[in-house]
Write a structure and sequence with these properties.
CATH topology: Jelly Rolls
Number of strands: 9
Largest sheet: 5 strands, antiparallel
Radius of gyration: 15 Å
Helix content: 25-40%
Structural class: alpha+beta
Strand order of the largest sheet: 1-2-9-4-7
Shape: globular
Strand content: 15-25%
CATH superfamily: Jelly Rolls
Number of helices: 4
CATH architecture: Sandwich
Length: 172
């Protein structure tokens, strides 16, 4: 299953969250989303846990920290996405064709597949609660994959696990 690849639209270099009228207005600031003033511990997020202090500084400089309210449409099925999301706190529902397929919580992520293949998102993701998110744009993501190989290896391992799980479900 591809619940890790739900989607957004594309009209600006930084991408677009939710409906077409909700756009990035400044780094770390989105309409209906406030920047989180406190620093988030990147080392506690599985994707970054093996990174050095230098790598963590590179990652930190690339991420937007946002807080989203309950009920916010984060990504929309069928739209091309340009962002990768990491959930620091809160929960979100993933739905495909109007049916719930997963609930994501702290440590969860979505959007990495669209960053890799630039195809339309396969599901909707809507916040169930207020959420703290780390958001990485397409351009920033590509730069990090080149400069911080630890992330590329972890993403490949996570995607391989998803393929294995989908394969197991298909033959159960």
């Amino acid at each position: 299953m591809d619940e890790g690849d739900p989607g957004t639209g594309v009209t600006e270099p930084r991408g677009q969250l939710g409906p077409p009228d909700a756009r990035h207005t400044a780094r770390g600031s989105l309409p209906g989303m406030a920047a989180r003033p406190q620093a988030l511990d990147l080392k506690s997020i599985w994707l970054f846990s093996g990174c050095s202090a230098s790598e963590l500084r590179k990652i930190r400089s690339s991420l937007d920290e946002v807080v989203v309210p309950e009920g916010k449409v984060l990504v929309e099925e069928g739209r091309v996405g340009l962002e990768f999301f990491l959930i620091v706190s809160g929960t979100a529902t993933v739905s495909r064709n109007g049916k719930k397929v997963a609930t994501l919580g702290p440590g969860g992520y979505f959007g990495e597949m669209a960053l890799l293949d630039r195809k339309p998102r396969s599901a909707n993701v809507v916040s169930d609660t207020e959420m703290d998110l780390l958001v990485l744009s397409q351009r920033q993501f590509n730069s990090l994959l080149q400069s911080v190989p630890t992330i590329a290896r972890k993403l490949l391992a996570a995607m391989a696990q998803r393929v294995r799980e989908a394969d197991a479900k298909a033959f159960d």
